[in-house]
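Weekly sync, protein design subgroup
Attendees: M.S., D.O., the rotation student, P.L. (late)

Item 1: inverse folding check
M.S. brought a backbone from last month's batch and wanted to see whether the design step gives back something sensible before we order anything. D.O. pointed out we never logged the input encoding, so this time it goes straight into the notes. Structure tokens as presented (240 positions):
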């Protein structure tokens, strides 16, 4: 007997379903073990990541407590105890705690008027390429400040000229040192322009801005600033 269209459609659907089952079974026989292994490895990797993340959190919490203990020891007049803790934190894998420890070590050296020791601590941060750039930039400025009297003016300018740009977070501190270096070089025009830019910037700390206003007035530079540090750099190259 000939199959009706409905029966023919049902038959084809059964054949198609059976074919799909056979293909699925064949695929499972071939790759089932590999799929299970991949799933197990994936779950293991995810569990390992969660464990690592948890350990990192515990380590950060522990280091935070160590840093606070070091500060407490300093406040209690126990420099030796704090020195040991800070030395340990200075080797931390965390940028923040490593930088905080070295900056604190440097500040302790500054209190003792040990400019060389302070500069070495700042230099360690400035030269640590694994450290975040804001930490390195600040360390370079503070290193230069500690060494300022022993440095040639052109070294100061070379180090900090890239940071003495309007809009840079450390524009005020870097520009003040560069401007004083210009004065030591006898380049009053460049110093005056830079002091004027500092005085005109509302982003600069008030203490630095106030000094810049005074210096700009003395140098007859005014407090309106120049057209940007790029122009200053151009004038400097022209003089060279």
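Designed sequence read out in the meeting:
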């Amino acid at each position: 007997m000939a199959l009706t269209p409905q029966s023919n459609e049902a038959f084809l659907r059964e054949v198609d379903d059976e074919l799909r089952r056979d293909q699925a079974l064949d695929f499972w026989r071939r790759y089932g073990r590999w799929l299970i292994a991949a799933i197990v490895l994936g779950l293991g990797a995810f569990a390992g990541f969660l464990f690592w993340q948890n350990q990192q959190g515990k380590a950060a919490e522990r280091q935070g407590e160590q840093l606070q203990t070091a500060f407490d020891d300093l406040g209690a007049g126990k420099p030796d105890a704090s020195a040991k803790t800070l030395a340990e934190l200075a080797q931390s894998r965390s940028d923040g705690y490593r930088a905080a420890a070295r900056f604190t070590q440097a500040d302790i050296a500054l209190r003792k008027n040990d400019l060389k020791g302070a500069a070495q601590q700042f230099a360690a941060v400035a030269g640590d390429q694994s450290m975040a750039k804001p930490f390195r930039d600040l360390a370079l400025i503070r290193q230069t400040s500690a060494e300022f009297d022993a440095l040639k003016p052109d070294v100061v300018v070379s180090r900090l000229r890239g940071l003495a740009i309007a809009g840079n977070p450390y524009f005020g501190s870097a520009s003040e040192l560069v401007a004083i270096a210009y004065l030591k070089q006898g380049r009053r025009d460049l110093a005056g322009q830079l002091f004027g830019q500092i005085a005109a910037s509302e982003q600069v700390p008030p203490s630095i801005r106030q000094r810049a206003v005074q210096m700009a007035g003395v140098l007859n530079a005014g407090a309106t600033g120049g057209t940007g540090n790029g122009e200053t750099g151009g004038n400097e190259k022209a003089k060279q």
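Discussion: The radius of gyration is 33 Å. The chain has ten helices and no strands.
Action: P.L. to compare against the previous round before Friday.
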